[in-house]
# Entry
Amino acid sequence: MSSADSKSNKKAFLIEIVEDDASLANVLQDKFKLEGFDVSIAKEGEEGLAIALSKRPDLILLDIMMPKMDGLEMMKKLRNGDEWGKNVPIILLTNLSADDERINWAIAENAPAYYLMKSNWTINDLVDKIRERLSRK
Amino acid sequence: MLDGFAYCQMIFDAQGRPVDFIYLLVNKKFNELTGLKGVVGKKVTEVIPGIGKDNPEILEVYGRVASTGVPEKFETYVKRLDVWLLISVYSPKKGFFAALFEDIHIQKKVEMDLANETLAIRNLLSDIKIQKNEVETAKVKEETALLAIGDGLLSTDENGKITLINKTAENLLNLRSEDVVGKSYSEVITIENEKNVIVPLDKRPIKLALTGITTNTNHSGFFYYYLRKDKTKFPAAMTVTPIILNNKVIGAIEIFRDITKEKEINKAKTEFVSLASHQLRTPLTAISWYTEMILNGDVGKVHAQQKKYLEEVYHGNRRMVELVNTLLNVSRIELGTFVIKQEPVDVIAMAESSLDEQKFNIQHRNLKITTNFDKNVPQLLADPKTFPLVFQNILSNAIDYSYSGGKIDFSIENDKGKNILIKISDNGLGIPKNQQHQIFTKLFRADNIIDKNTDGTGLGLYIAKSIVESSGGKIWFESEENKGSTFFISLPADGQKK
# Structure
């Protein structure tokens, strides 16, 4: 299927998906698995933070609007935590436009790798973007 | 002799009324004045027929003088002879009179002119008095109205000293008129900009108005916080206008309105729009990604007919996403929430990127693109997140409204080193002349493209124009139906701070 599969002696990348919409989380998971990634899913920020700190994914796909703890807060906590948290690549994947001052501040302070609008990205292009970021460790 | 002279015998009727007289002696001047000749020995009624009717006063006076012997003097206009005369009459012998005639038509004219002028001046004075009253009444009305309006109002003299402050301003600022009139504006009132930074004196609108730099400041999204003595503050929309008399600035008027309520409403609207668009986009994303997965063959083989149908689903979904994005952009423009963060941008890179985005459409319609990007074009101060929308919208129009196999030219040039001039032209459908004035209005789509193309919201150019103008630029076009259109955008090279 994909090139990642054939390199079976190489450990697959772990992508953490933090997304409260189950439908979206599932299709992303299906796609990433097909592409040879390992996937972990969290439904909101608190769960996401716990999983991130314990599993240490290679990249986090982070939604913003979620119940309990939103994506910006989770990102802030990661960046203010240990060395790993400061450096893990985070892609903010949301349907919110960056109009809010709060979002802009968070981006400026916590340096996500990208801020992507879900509805403007095809799932294939998303995969390419992730691969590109991962290749730049 | 300068006067005309006539010596006559009076004729009375049976009742003793003067009815006629006979000319016994006249001089040459008399002939000249009256134009009468050979009157000696004749009766006046023969010589000037109708004299009794036209000028009965003449016979009366002559008769009186001839009987009483008391001299008289009078003026008369003899119609028959068309002459103004001053007549002095005396009687040397009872029943007889002598009259001296002076032509006074010149004096008469002067008198009449004088009378007319006097009348005219009186009328003028009367008018002036009326107008003065009207002006004074209006002035009082205005002052009362000004003082009573719901907005805060204050005026200063040419030195920035407060001359007037109305009740609303007093209330909003927690000041009393008697405490502030005569004081310098900057002593009394402190304002902050939207970022809560105190505005220095030389940048304050009143200062700018007094030095003739700006007239109105317009307040769409542009407001100040007014600080009260107790350190509380409120947001206000403000307009400052200089008062100009004989080309000199003699003061300024500042009007401001508390917009706390408006800002709250705006904030609520913005949050609603943000939430709504987020909610709309989520299911659209689901449709998009799932359809994509099927089309990719990631969940099983898809035969040709299925592929075709799924592509329609996908296409419809894409249109909806575009629509949501467009509606959101329009809403952001209206609410003033387009966060215009100006930075130096590489406008050529932006243009190339926008062409790249449209690669598929360009190929699909077999269009030939020529570009002419001047490398020496300076950097532009613009918002890198929103400015691409300008290219996106104009370019997609050029593509959508071109004929298959058409041509699009895209150029960026340096305009006299002060501006950047961008041109995008096509040789497609063009815009009908009678609809050209509506092109930038919201939701407008010209008749000739509504028929040919059902896609399109009519919002793209409205958005493009809003972004260009808030970057300090201008946008316009030339177009001819069925020949094509050229859109021009001119932007200041060093950008402009809002």
The longest helix of chain B spans residues 105-148.
